[in-house]
Specification:
This protein is an alpha/beta fold. It is 36% helix and 15% strand.
Amino acid sequence: MIIVTGGAGFIGSNLVAGLERRLGPDGPDLVVVDRLGSDEKWRNIAKRDLAAIIPPEDFFDFLEDNRGAVEAIFHMGAISSTTERDADRIVRENVALPLRLWQWCARHDTRLIYASSAATYGDGAQGFDDDGSPEAQATLRPLNAYGWSKHLFDRRAVKLAARKPHPPQWVGLKFFNVYGPNEYHKGGMRSVVAHITPKIQAGEGATLFKSHRPDYEDGGQTRDFIHVDDVVDVMLWLYGALAVNGIFNLGTGAARSFADLARAVFAALGQKERITYIDTPEAIRDRYQYFTQARMERLRDAGYPGQFTSLEEGVRRYVQDYLTQEDPYR
């Protein structure tokens, strides 16, 4: 049995689809842990063959009932909003719960691959090197409670991994700017591609933030954009690489501008570029990142052989194969 927490969410549902494809009909049972709510989130997993869908409040009872049968847990579930203000809720979901899960996996010899975040790097002043040593981690200063919670668990995982017992395999993945199908339920936290595509289709063009720094042009702010298929490919590789442990960046290693991203959407839609720039809201202006780029040497040194999708190709596939289709779900 393989369990994916947050398995009906954006990255989680794509991972479930990838596992189903990789393992085939005779592979281990796939179990999703998530809340579906009253919106269309259920459609993210509607095409999957699942053994069970477990609400989070029943998760640990389910684990106890199935101990010995759980091979691996991919922990993608979390409070992922960077604007969430309830820090107590964030600590419960992003720190206390994964610590309890780590302890269960250690006791029951179960592999654990979990979602960390590039938000742990804060404004990037200390760089984007995924050196997991306690000394390197101590220098990072996340800018919001979400990033801090992910950083706190990363630091704890490194210390716990030096003790016994610990999970037979443990990996934390610092996701950078992931985009792709099945993110539609995320509202304001959807990728820029998902936000601007319907506006461009409606003839409104794209709206991006102006630069408030002299060393960056309007729309020149950069991110390490990575297609969700590449994220899934890395996790599937890790599933087959039992000896790989630690904290790793998961981006492409190539920073691209928001203007580049918008141009790729226009190209995918076959439309002429029309970009309008507006002031970055003052509430976030002082904390707005102008550059993120994952260092990917550690994942390569661990043996990952895959190539990452170019921004233009990834946006084209997302726009043409999903966002403009009647059924945009994977």
